[in-house]
Amino acid sequence: MENAVVSLNVVMPLFIIMVLGYFLKKYKIYDVESLRIFNNVVFRVFLPLNLFNTIYKTNLSESFDKKLTIFSIGAVIFLFIILLVVVPKLENVNEKRGVIIQGLFRSNFVIMGLPIAMNIYGENNVGTVAILIAFVVPLLNVLAVISLEIFRDKKIDCIKIIKGILKNPLIIGAFFGIVVLKFNIPIPHFLKITVSELGKIATPLAILLLGGSFEFHSVEKYFKQTMYIVFLKLIVIPSIFVALGVMAGFTGIKLLIIYVIFGTPTAVSSFNMAQQMGGDSELAGQIVIFTTMMSIVSIFIGIFIMKSFNLI
């Protein structure tokens, strides 16, 4: 019973905030354009400050785990290669191939992963998550671009990809957090408070806007295909990599990190990327919506099982 309560306490705040976000848009408290602007502010200001603040408050020598970093990066690349081989054999339409691959490996690691870890281990114990974000987020972005570029028959622009990574606000926030922490650069107290308070806005606002982005159109057209993807994304893939993580000796927050890398819903930005790069944006949108909705149940079950076996 205790494990069920812990699991419920993790997912219910996320669910309630998402539902609130959906109804705020439904009743025109904000519109699509406001959603776009707020999302931009969250991505460029609040999330980077949140990452900076989380990293700055951690013990770098304790939080950086070389084995976990290598495992996580290797696992993401391994999954991507498998999908790159298997998906084209099952799907004939190029516009869908890249979208399906992206939908299966690219997770909402930042928006969903951090609050899940904080709800279980507390705000002061998630430095490992924040530091790993600096490695995993650019990798996910690079692989997402590659997956879409390959299937639109155009040459992959490596320079453009590298520039995109270096300009990514999340990478910049994480980088400065590591630099300030590593070199023990003093920050005035008033600035610490300012950054901390602004960073706290990131998670609830990002999840609120995620709920506001739900649009239930073209559901019937893609329903069957989307359900297969949801099952693989939220159940099969995280189960495989959590099992591999356990065999590799990971427990506690480290195993939870592996779970949220693979078991959180597909990143919201995958819809925009598919739209801009010639992918099937309708399918991409449905994948984001349904993986996000179903993740409330799957994350509850996943955390409950891991808690029951004392793995986290």
List the helices and strands and how they pair.
Blueprint: H1 2-26, H2 32-56, H3 60-63, H4 66-90, H5 94-105, H6 109-121, H7 127-150, H8 158-167, H9 169-182, H10 189-212, H11 219-247, H12 252-263, H13 269-276, H14 281-308
Helix pairs in contact: 1-6, 1-10, 1-14, 2-7, 2-9, 2-10, 4-5, 4-7, 5-7, 5-11, 5-14, 6-7, 6-10, 6-12, 7-9, 11-12, 11-14, 13-14
Explained architecture:
The protein has 312 residues and is an all-alpha fold. It has a single domain (2-303), classed as Na+/H+ antiporter like fold (Up-down Bundle), CATH 1.20.1530. It contains 14 helices and no strands. Helix 6 (109-121) crosses helix 10 (189-212), helix 11 packs antiparallel against helix 12 (252-263) and helix 13 (269-276) runs antiparallel to helix 14 (281-308).
Give a brief rundown of this model.
The protein has one domain (2-303): Na+/H+ antiporter like fold. 81% of the residues lie in helices and 0% in strands.
Structural class: mainly alpha
Arithmetic mean pLDDT? 85
Q: What would you say the CATH architecture is?
A: Up-down Bundle
The radius of gyration is 19 Å
Uncertain runs:
none
For the termini, the CA-CA separation is: 16 Å
Task: Provide keyphrases for this structure.
mainly alpha; 81% helix; Na+/H+ antiporter like fold; 14 helices; 312 residues; globular
